[in-house]
């Protein structure tokens, strides 16, 4: 399975935008890019996913590089409730497994 | 309820005992998944059900682990002869028809299993 690389941790100030990077240089053409997050003592929560084009939803935006070898999750205005571990996952079409790495631990500074 | 429900939320058992962990998926979701999460790690896939059948059990670590979903809704993860290394948070997730890249999974809050 194609792997992703994320920074272990990031910090951001409350009410500022946050850009969480993910490298996936071995991505294949049928791999979707998914982001999940896990708040303390909770199960993972879906954030957003995309294939080639940038995506927006109520939680975040996903910016995908033109060559698809990297992507960035954008939280437009971080709140304390956004403090979590964020996982970038490549999901091959037809594959039911989510392969989580260790993710990026995001700390929000009040 | 509206979400995936897992019971119990915490389970402490003695080494060598048998345990059952229960998952109630979102109503109408045909796909169900079990994951295991050790401290400081991301969740690891165990097994995937489509309806009543286990479509992929490649993540089960050994034959002490078994899961069933007899009526295509509730699932039970069964662990025989528990070992201290089985201590982890066991997560259940469901999806409407399956992930296949283009849909999302909904996770429960997990069952924290501690083997003493």
Topology of helices and strands:
The complex is a heterodimer of chains A (110) and B (116).
Chain A: E1 9-13, E2 18-23, E3 31-38, E4 45-50, E5 55-56, E6 61-64, E7 70-75, E8 84-92, E9 104-109
Parallel strand pairs in A: 1-9
Antiparallel strand pairs in A: 2-7, 3-4, 3-8, 5-6, 6-7, 8-9
Chain B: E1 5-7, E2 10-13, E3 19-24, E4 31-37, E5 44-50, E6 53-56, E7 65-68, E8 75-79, E9 88-95, E10 106-107, E11 111-115
Parallel strand pairs in B: 2-11
Antiparallel strand pairs in B: 1-3, 3-8, 4-5, 4-9, 5-6, 7-8, 9-10, 9-11
- Please, how many helices of chain B? 0
Which runs of chain B of at least 5 residues are low in confidence (pLDDT < 50)? none
- Biggest contact: A-B, 27 and 28 residues
Q: What string gives the helices and strands of chain B in order?
A: EEEEEEEEEEE
Main pleated-sheet profile of chain A: 5 strands, mixed
Estimate the helix proportion of chain A, in percent: under 10%
How would you describe the shape of chain A?
A: globular
Mean of residue pLDDT values of chain A: 94
Structural write-up:
- The complex is a heterodimer of chains A (110) and B (116).
- Chain A is mostly beta strands.
- Chain A is built from no helices and 9 strands.
- In chain A, strands 1-9-8-3-4 form a 5-stranded mixed beta sheet, with no helix packed on it.
- Chain A is globular and about 40 Å long.
- Helices cover 0% and strands 47% of the residues of chain B.
- Chain B is built from no helices and 11 strands.
- Chain B has strands at residues 5-7, 10-13, 19-24, 31-37, 44-50, 53-56, 65-68, 75-79, 88-95, 106-107, 111-115.
- In chain B, strands 2, 4, 5, 6, 9, 10 and 11 form a 7-stranded mixed beta sheet that branches. A 4-stranded antiparallel beta sheet of chain B has the order 1-3-8-7, with no helix packed on it.
- Chain B is globular.
- The termini of chain B are far apart.
- The model of chain B has no long low-confidence stretch (mean pLDDT 95).
- Chain A binds chain B through residues 30-32, 34, 41-46, 49, 51, 85, 87, 91-103, and chain B through 4, 31, 33, 35, 40-45, 48, 55-56, 59, 91, 93, 98-102, 104-110.
């Amino acid at each position: 399975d194609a792997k992703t690389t994320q920074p272990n941790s990031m910090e951001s100030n409350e009410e500022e935008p946050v850009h969480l990077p993910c490298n996936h240089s071995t991505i294949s053409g049928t791999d979707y890019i998914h982001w999940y997050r896990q708040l303390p003592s909770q199960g993972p929560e879906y954030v957003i996913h995309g294939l080639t084009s940038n995506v927006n939803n109520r939680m975040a935006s996903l910016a995908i590089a033109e060559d698809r070898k990297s992507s960035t999750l954008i939280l437009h205005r971080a709140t304390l409730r956004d403090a979590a571990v964020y996982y970038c996952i490549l999901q091959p079409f037809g594959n039911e497994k989510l392969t989580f790495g260790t993710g990026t631990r995001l700390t929000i500074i009040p | 309820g509206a979400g995936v429900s897992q019971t119990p939320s915490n389970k402490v058992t003695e080494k060598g005992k048998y345990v059952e962990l229960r998952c109630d998926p979102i109503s109408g979701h045909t796909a169900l998944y079990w994951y295991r999460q050790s401290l400081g790690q991301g969740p690891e896939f165990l097994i995937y059900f489509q309806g009543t059948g286990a479509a992929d059990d490649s993540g089960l670590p050994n034959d002490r682990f078994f899961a069933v979903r007899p009526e295509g809704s509730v699932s039970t993860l069964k662990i025989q002869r528990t070992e201290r290394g089985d201590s982890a948070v066991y997560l259940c997730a469901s999806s409407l028809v399956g992930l296949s890249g283009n849909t999302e999974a909904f996770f429960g809050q997990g069952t924290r299993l501690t083997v003493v």
